[in-house]
Amino acid sequence: xxxxxxxxxxxxxxxxxxxxxxxxxxxxxxxxxxxxxxxxxxxxxxxxxxxxxxxxxxxxxxxxxxxxxxxxxxxxxx
Length: 78
What we know:
Helix content is 31%, strand content 17%. The chain is an alpha+beta fold. The two termini are 30 Å apart.
């Protein structure tokens, strides 16, 4: 089982558990406390357990642009 980056960084201050086959942060505090913090500030959701896709080749930009609803052609390439 893999461990998400968020779980590695905040593991000592969080409740860690399994989600979608990865060890990740399940919660930092009680539900009420987290909701209060979210209403007053900001929140995070760990998506580190998700897979990543690498697209290569000359037609990658056109293909990706056709796969998503937003225009990705005008984004800077890394």
